[in-house]
Each structure stands twice: as structure tokens, then as C-alpha cells.
Amino acid sequence: MTGRLAGRVVAVHGRHFLVETGAGRYDCVTRGKKGGLACGDRVEIKPTGVDAAVIEKNLPRDNLLYRSDRFHTKLLAANVDQVFVVTAAVPSPDPGLLDRCLVACEAAGIPARIVVNKTDRPETAPWLERLQTYAALGYPLIPLAAKTDVAPLAGWLAGRTSILVGASGVGKSTLVNALVPEAEIATQDISEALDTGKHTTTHTRLYHLPEGGALIDSPGMQEFALGHLDQADLQAAFPEFRPLAGQCRFYNCRHLREPGCAVLAAVETGAVARARWRSYEALCRELDKAAKDYR
Ligand SMILES: Nc1nc2c(ncn2[C@@H]2O[C@H](COP(=O)(O)OP(=O)(O)OP(=O)(O)O)[C@@H](O)[C@H]2O)c(=O)[nH]1
Ligand SMILES: [Zn+2]
Predict the structure, then answer these.
(1) Can you give the residue ranges of every domain in the chain?
(2) What per-residue confidence (pLDDT) applies to 188?
(3) Which residues form a coiled coil (predicted)?
(4) Quick one: which atom of ligand 1 is closest to the CA of 146?
(5) 25, 32, 132, 170: least CB-packed within 10 angstroms?
(6) What is the mean pLDDT of residues 90-102?
(7) Cβ(75)–Cβ(165) under 8 Å?
(8) Nearest CA-CA partner of 104 in 132, 60, 141, 68
(9) Which residue minimizes the CA distance to atom 2 of ligand 1?
(10) What residues does ligand 1 touch, defined as CB less than 6 Å away?
(11) Distance, CA 247 to ligand 2 centroid (Å)?
């Protein structure tokens, strides 16, 4: 690889990628159509100027977190060790969005944790209560108030690459600013390097943590489309279905309204949370609709 440098994508802005290498950072473009790149992707680049380069090669990924509908694929991050889905009781939370985030993590094979921000707000108690369902499924809950103390989260981050995802207004920026002392400066640096103007809140970027490890911030989302998943992916992404595998009357049961369905029976007894099953059902319907539209 003469003249080439190995690096990692640390910020994405449209078709520009800021790549960090042992020899500094480069504002990069891809050569031709190589498919998208995400924050955290490893690449080989060839400098074309002091701080400009072309991406010559995308290196294999350990994993990729993304969302997609029929028209767009939105890459969130690659090569991450864990995803923190940030929630808060205010503004009013959307459990459907939380489920979609978790399904995306399961499908990508990335461990997910749930941050419950704004514990200083009295509305938090019922939300935290509701989230016990998720704790029972094995998703750790991390309650904290980003405004006053981020220590409960900090302990999870050292030495790993993590990404924060979540709805708009849950406090992701507040968390990043508290965890990364130079976050504001880093953001400005990135904006200058990529020439994007001062406030690029709509883009994904990677920050280095003082204790080692990296934190990727992603733009607040209203929805999380999962057009890339098929029926089998969906079923596999609900951990509460796993102990029931093979117990439905029909081997190809979709757990929607089939007689003798073990999942539906578990919803009736409360062993599977009805709200979770509803999220599953909504995702199945979307899948069917997409298949119909496509025909
Ligand atoms: N009460 C309370 N408010 C908080 C806390 N953390 C953040 N907020 C507030 O929540 C609002 C949204 O915080 P941001 O950090 O901008 O949220 P965000 O998730 O980055 O939002 P987007 O930029 O839209 O993605 C701000 O008014 C914060 O001051 C907290 O621990 N307690
Ligand atoms: Zn079934």
C-alpha cells in the first residue's frame, strides 16, 4: 500500500468523510461509487494534499448499525462495541422507537444498553418502572441525570467504542458535553476540517474519551425504519421469543394470530409484554406492506 495510510472515519458530512490516521486527519472523498461509509469505518486513504485524501479501500467491518426504508439507507456507525439507547421521561417517550432501536442492535449483533436520562424529573419514576420489562430481557438500565452526574455511564465507556442513539431532546448532546471535555472544540475542529459551518448537529461523529475508548454521537431521530430486516430477523430480534422457539403448533408460525401460538399464549399470561408484542406486530405489518408495494 505505497503512499496509503490506514485510518478510521471519525465524522461524516454528506459525501465527505473525516478520516483520522497516524499522520493526522484528512478530509476525504470516495473514489467512484463504493457504497456508504459510516463513522467508525476503517479505511485506507491516499493523500492528495496536506489535509485532503481519497479513500482507496473500505476495510471489512465487525458490525454496522443502520436504518433503512425502501428509498434510503442511513448508516449510523460501524465497528462499535455497544449501543446506548438514550431515553428520558420528558419529552414524552416513544416505546415503539426504543423497540426499533433494540431490534436494530439485535440484528446487527451489537449489545444494547438503555440510558434513562433526566432522573431529576419526577416523571422518571413511572418510565423507569415501565422499563423494568427491558431489564428483565437483559438490557441493562442506566439511570442518570446528564446535567448533574454522568458517572453511572462513564464506567461503561472506558476502552470501548460506543454509540449514543435516541429521540431528539433526550439529552445526547448534554451527555457528550459532560463526557468529552473537548467536545465543543472537537466539533468546531471537525466542522472546519470538513468545512460544514459551525453547528452540524445533524451528523454523526466520533469523539475520543479521556479514559480511552471512543464515543459516537448520532443525530436525534423521530423514526427508525428497519426495511433491511426479514421475518426471520425480526423474530430473532425479540429475546423474549427465544425460550418459546419450537413450541408453536405451526413450524412457520409468525406469532400474529395463528392458533396454537406459544408467543400469543405468553402474551395472554403476561410472560411476554403486550407492548413488546405490539411493536413486533407493527414491524411485521410494515414488512408485509413493503412486500406488497414491491410486487
Ligand atoms: N431536567 C433535565 N434536563 C436535561 C438533562 N439532560 C439534558 N436535559 C435537557 O434536555 C434538553 C435536550 O437536551 P440535548 O442534550 O440537546 O438533547 P439531544 O438528545 O442532544 O437532542 P437532539 O440534538 O435533538 O438530538 C435540553 O434542554 C437539556 O438541557 C437532565 O439530566 N435533566
Ligand atoms: Zn407462534
Answers:
(1) 5-58, 64-217, 231-294
(2) 64
(3) none
(4) 31
(5) 32
(6) 95
(7) no
(8) 68
(9) 118
(10) 117-118, 120-121, 145-147, 168-174, 201, 219-220
(11) 8
Question: What CA–CA distances, in Å, run from 145 to 125, 127, 167, 175?
Answer: 13, 14, 16, 9
Ligand 1 centroid, distance to 151 Cα (angstroms): 17
Is residue 148 marked as binding? Answer: no
Asked whether the predicted pLDDT for residue 53 surpasses 80, the reply is yes
How much is the mean pLDDT over the chain?
A: 91
Statement: the pTM of the whole predicted model exceeds 0.80: yes
Residue whose CA is at the smallest distance from ligand 1 atom 32: 118
> Residue 238: its pLDDT value, please?
98
Give rounded-to-5 percent helix, strand, coil for the chain. 30, 25, 40
168 annotated binding-site participant: yes
| 284 annotated as belonging to a binding site for a ligand | no
Which helix (H) or strand (E) segment holds residue 84: the answer is: strand 82-88
What is the reported pLDDT for 196? 61
Ligand minimally distant from the alpha carbon of residue 255: 2
Question: Quick one: what percent of the chain has pLDDT higher than 70?
Answer: 92
Looking at domain 231-294, does it have CATH number 2.30.40.10?
Answer: no
Q: Which CATH number fits domain 5-58: 2.40.50.140, 3.40.140.10, 3.40.50.720, 2.40.50.320?
A: 2.40.50.140
